[in-house]
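Reopening closed ticket. The problem is back. First fold of the pair:
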Amino acid sequence: MTVIDNHEVLANDGDFRLSEASARDYFELLKPRVMSLVVFTAFAGLVLAPGHINPVLGLTAILCIAIGAGASGALNMWYDADIDAVMSRTAKRPIPAGRILPKEALAFGLVLSCFSVGILGLAVNWLSAFILAFTIFFYVVVYTMWLKRSTPQNIVIGGAAGAFPPMIGWACVTNSVTIESTVLFLIIFLWTPAHFWALALFKMRDYEAVGVPMLPNVSGERTTKHQIVAYAVLTAICAVLPTFLGFASVGYGVVAAALGAVFIYCSIAVWRMPGGDLKMIPAKKLFGFSIFYLFAVFSALLLDRLVAMLVSYAGGSF
């Protein structure tokens, strides 16, 4: 089987045919690791939002958001199949590996997109469904089809797609977009550049091979390191805003500040890293810690809300 481009796959006999993909291959199209982060942050937005939502509707909302995120991943893999085949970290994905045809991935992604948005709108509310639809559109069309291959700021602007889930979760409960949900959005939005540019530093050759203008390839390592530190500082500041806005406690603020200090420390270690360092150990450490950081911040927010609920419940029982 030979990959012709990112839209068709030609069989050896010259006829187009369906693949023999397994359920695992289709699951891989959903980008499950990315989906787990989307589900977690969306759940955080849903729990942190004031008010209540029926547990069944809440579960339905999270399921729809997860499916929408998976649909975005499938459509991203469909469009990026040509460059995925060249990059070492993506070459074994289902489409470049020949396990799924691009047209199958396209159909799969489109069906899941329509299903997730429609069910969320009918079951929960149409504001959250609209934000989910816009998130899918932004990730697939604005980021994948346009920004990714045209500007070194692709991650900065495109990062908005990954920042919407807590806002969607919040809207599922309140049917509104507020300053609080915007702060949750900003934490992820500002976190994204430092996270992905750390990856781009030790995957520069891959991005160069496929012509994707990531910041290290276009502006150099030095500029990238400066911006990583800047975004780490902005992320750390934004992460303590829930305390100042009153929807998280001082205890959360202390935890967020401590996590932010480590995040900044790791980014400074990258800034101090010698140019042309082939091992890129500080960059790899920052990339790994950045994932932990985001999960830890949102876990702290959830734990803070749980403690507040328990205190309120105990107070009301006396």
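Second fold of the pair, where the issue appears:
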Amino acid sequence: MSVSQNLQFGLIGQIFKSDYAWLCTRVSQALGCPHSAQDIASETFLRVLALPDPSAIREPRALLTTIAKRLVYEGWRRQDLERAYLETLAQAPLAAHPSPEERLLVIETLIQVDRLLDGLSTKAKAAFLYHQIDGLTYAQIAAHLEVSVSRVQQYMVDGFKRCYLAIAQP
């Protein structure tokens, strides 16, 4: 381990010692569950460890709060996606239900797709998913979303750009 890595770990260790309990309390107040708060706080510090230059941290509590909030929102988003999938699955015939392993893979894939499309408008996401998953035509999507076909085409271009960029990144 290099000297700079030792310094970085030492700095993060100091932040951990002084702010871990504070962060757990803050997140616990938001979630109402101390165990989930500890998980979020731990994950927050893992993300801090992954930062390229932890020595650049000027306001540790502000950074920790921002990362923890993002993790809480990601958790809520995951729960929403999982709930929507399970509600849809409940309407399907029993023979079409996947195994628990397949169900987990579908949920993980939905989360990846959601992250991939993050930043697109709600209508752009819907248009992309209606076309790619449901197989709707641009005209059907336009009618459903109450937009023009050319607007649907723009939405699709935006969605495909995101897919291409995700694939093209090393």
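Update: turned out to be a display glitch only; the data is intact. The chain has a mean pLDDT of 88. Residues 128 and 156 are 6 Å apart (CA to CA). Please close again.
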